[in-house]
Amino acid sequence: MKNSVTGLFCLCLLWAGWTRSGQAQTPSPGPKPDPAAASAPQDQQTPTGGPIIQAPPELPKYPDVRLPGEHGFWIGLGASQPKGQSIYDTGRANASQANSGFVTMQGTPHIGESVEGGIVLGLHNALRVSYFQTSASGDFLAPTDMTMWSQNYSSGDLVSTNYKLQDIKVSFDYLTWPYPVGYKRFRLKTLWQVQYVVLKSTFNAPQLPLVNSSGAPLTDASGNPITYVGQGTSWFITPTLGLGFQEYISHHLRLELNGVGFGIPHHSTLWDVDGSINIRVGRFEIGAGARAFHFKTSPEGSYYMRGTLTAPQVSLRWFSE
Prior knowledge:
Blueprint: H1 2-25, H2 35-39, E1 73-80, E2 87-90, E3 103-104, E4 112-121, E5 125-141, E6 146-148, E7 151-153, E8 158-177, E9 186-204, E10 230-250, E11 253-263, E12 269-281, E13 284-296, E14 303-319
């Protein structure tokens, strides 16, 4: 009997030890894994906390095609045949002058000469520098007593007139539309310019005597030789603002139209318009068109000049690319 109880007790101890060993080795059930999350790449798994941030898509890239004349630099020459007469007049600073000082400058302007140079800045912008000059001379009979540049002329005197016009222009041509350019052939540019205008005028009485009957030079009260020349210079610097239009009809044919101007009431005024059709042959471009140029120096001075010149013109440009 004692042996039976002892055996039963040992059997219970063995059962209890086996049960505890099984429970210690069996893991507790956890959350069921997500098969989709496990198979997704590491950088695409949804974060467990915080805002979801997505990178913006890349902006589309547009082509930017440069057409002839939109590379490198260029130089050019031009010629024109201006028409129109300039006016010389007394300014407000000399309003008390007794004699008339109003003169229409005589003669047809000589052939206008121009030179130009430019360089491309950026994709379709450009910096241009140009120079233009013309002159005219002629004669008229003074209708009354007159005074020009402090030189007096009597009524009936034959008076010769001469003037020379010079214009220096610096222009920054900024592409305004279209943007982006892409494959478009039209260009609208805003023109930001500075112009320097100089007018030199000279008057003389070529038929009045300079020597006496014996051939000795005539002198004034101070003993200086008599002269009938009156001359002086009027000039001004002004900004000019405007628009430029270009249309590339083909790879070898281009239309261009530019217009600028600026003025201050009772002071200097300038406007400048030109248009041309241009044909490209290799690195050369031949242009033909017309130009209108208006100027007025400040009437606040002792004397001033004004006028409008129109001219057909031709040009030849050479491009580096």
